[in-house]
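This follows on from our talk about sequence and fold. Go ahead and set the record down below:
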Amino acid sequence: MTAPVLTEEKPADGGSGGGKSGMMVMQFVLPSKYKCLDDVPRPTDPRVRVKEVSPRKYGVTTFSGIASEKLVEVKVSELEKSLHEAGYKVTGRHVLAQYNPPWTIPFLRKNEVMVPLE
């Protein structure tokens, strides 16, 4: 397993706006030894896609514990408020990054919420 594991809820309307919630997308960050897509092992599950992601700019905050939906909502709200006060413009929905396996003791878990910025 790679770390972090990124999860992002895609809106049902297909946009990045305030549509109803749609499906949850899980992403894995591959090690740096893979220099290009041709080097990456081919998935055996047709639901898994490998794609290269261009660099992006995010506002990020770190927290520990179990990343419950409620706690993530609180952290996203706090982060967006801080970014707005600092003059940044949020351009999309948040991404949750989790760095530890599920059996890790909650207070030792490292999580991040990331919001895309202009």
About this structure: The chain is about 15% helix and 25% strand.
